[in-house]
Amino acid sequence: MPANATIYLPVEDVDLGKIFESAKSKKTFFKRERYFEVDVAGDLVRFNVMPTEQLGSHLNGFVGYISSLHDDDHRKQEATSFVRQSRIVLGLVTKKEFYENEALISCLFEIAEAYGGIVFTQNSVIKFDGNVLVGPLYGNT
User: Fold this and answer.
1) Which range marks the domain in which residue 120 is found?
2) 52 within some domain
3) Which of 105, 45, 28 is nearest to 36 (CA)?
């Protein structure tokens, strides 16, 4: 099964070309990115940009997921705060699993760090600095 991850960013606009030389984007009629394609250690990876009209309901659902976790309330509040500040959501699309291309993880966190966001992968919310806020990866890193 391919690697699965989502990046939540607290910015109105994102340009992966500023982070990765190989980044290419496909824009909509209104000049907003629909997706970015990036070469990650020889593999072409796509980051789909969630349409603005889907963002609110998605973020509300994600907050609900976080509140359902059996994690410390303080950590859940911090994760929820990051989610509520999100203005752009990027969904990873790749054919490889993380163990098949270890550079995928670095790529996710380069993006998150550049924009002060979070990564959701393996049912865990992870800050741009690598600290796990909530989820099964907490305490395992």
Assistant:
1) 5-134
2) yes
3) 45
